[in-house]
Specification:
Length: 286
């Protein structure tokens, strides 16, 4: 268990809750050009990430390209990119409604709502997604709100409610994602692993989670079921700790792969929602 000494846990918990933002505007950092981040901007984003494992930056570029996003990321030690199925060659995925191509089968590339998850929950342990940047190029006409929650807060709520929830979610067979099989055969083998794990290098908490009902096999155990129900209620609680916001053009979320979801949205005739997304194997060096 993370912080197995009761005293260490109490101290860490108190400090975490004391500093955790209660309002979205506490996460927002106004910066200049994305690719030319100054010391003040870098430190303000790092500070927000220390508090909440995330920050929302707001840049004043007239246009942002893939290169600018990757240059920005490098300020935080984010260099090892997850080159997954739907990303471009440089690792930047363009999330927009797709009617064809590699993304068209996946909900992120539609205007539907997207349930709670952490990115790469279907990745093997060797390719954990530790950080994600989501940059808004164009927002939708309506909808497309993001909900976000720091996994450390989830951990605290679960451990406070019942420490056995944590043990259940640390089980190496807690959550299995069946193999992804396409028309031409297996794209990805089945992946089995815990919800909560801890990086060997620095002890950082890592969370794998998806609220999807289909294509996920949970360990059949009463405590795991109760923990999942508790978590689901926490995420749906309108007066709970979830932070909700709607990224504007030029804004982006940089995070240590926090839990997030998205509401459905509607594009206009000449206004198509577009977000750039990059996933990293590194954590933000905050
Ligand atoms: Fe995501």
């Amino acid at each position: 268990m993370f912080l197995s000494s009761a005293t260490d846990y109490r101290e860490w918990r108190a400090a975490k809750l004391d500093r955790y933002p209660t309002r979205v505007d506490e996460l927002i950092v106004n910066i200049g050009e994305l690719a030319d981040l100054d010391y003040r901007g870098t430190e303000a984003i790092r500070s927000s990430c220390r508090r909440a494992n995330m920050a929302i930056y707001s840049c004043n570029d007239s246009g942002v390209d893939h290169t600018a996003i990757l240059a920005f990321a490098a300020n935080f030690g984010l260099r090892r990119i997850d080159h997954h199925l739907c990303a471009s060659n440089d690792g930047v995925a363009e999330l927009t409604v797709a009617s064809e191509g590699a993304g068209s089968d996946y909900v992120p590339y539609s205007d539907h709502s997207l349930g709670w998850h952490t990115d790469g929950y279907y990745n093997a342990e060797s390719s954990r997604v530790r950080a994600v940047i989501l940059h808004c190029v164009q927002d939708a006409t309506t909808g497309g709100e993001t909900g976000a929650l720091d996994p450390e807060i989830v951990y605290i709520r679960l451990r406070d409610a019942n420490p056995a929830f944590i043990t259940a979610l640390e089980h190496p067979e807690c959550m299995t994602i069946p193999a992804n099989v396409g028309n031409r055969g297996e794209i990805r083998p089945a992946i089995c692993g815990p919800v909560f794990s801890y990086d060997a290098a620095d002890g950082a908490l890592h969370m794998r989670y998806s609220a999807r009902k289909k294509n996920i096999c949970w360990r059949d155990d009463p405590t795991t079921r109760a923990a999942r129900e508790f978590l689901s209620e926490l995420l749906d609680d309108k007066s709970g700790p979830v932070l909700r916001f709607r990224l504007q053009p030029g804004q982006g979320l940089i995070s240590n792969n926090v839990l997030h979801n998205r509401t459905a949205f509607q594009d206009g005739p000449s206004r198509k929602r577009l977000l750039y997304r990059v996933r990293f194997f590194d954590r933000i060096n905050s």
